[in-house]
Amino acid sequence: MENTMKKVTLLTLMALTSLTAAAKPQTVTLDVPTMNCVTCPFTVKKSLQNVAGVSEADVTFETKVAIVTFDDEKTTVKALIDATTNAGYPSTIKQ
Q: pTM to 2 decimals?
């Protein structure tokens, strides 16, 4: 019985470890060229933060970019672009 419990515990730990390892945060940089005033980044940042899976959004007026860290199991780059676009600030992936 004790040996069986050890195997179950080991298998459970292995499963949890593989789940944790699979969920890696991704970072994307978006060009947001239509930001034309210093308050625009607040709206863009809020729109990105409202997307499930976004852990960080750094939006800069001077460079007109948004650097977004997100969980790719919860959202996509398309969803991020849609969020900024729906807020009135179309964006594209910075090349």
A: 0.76
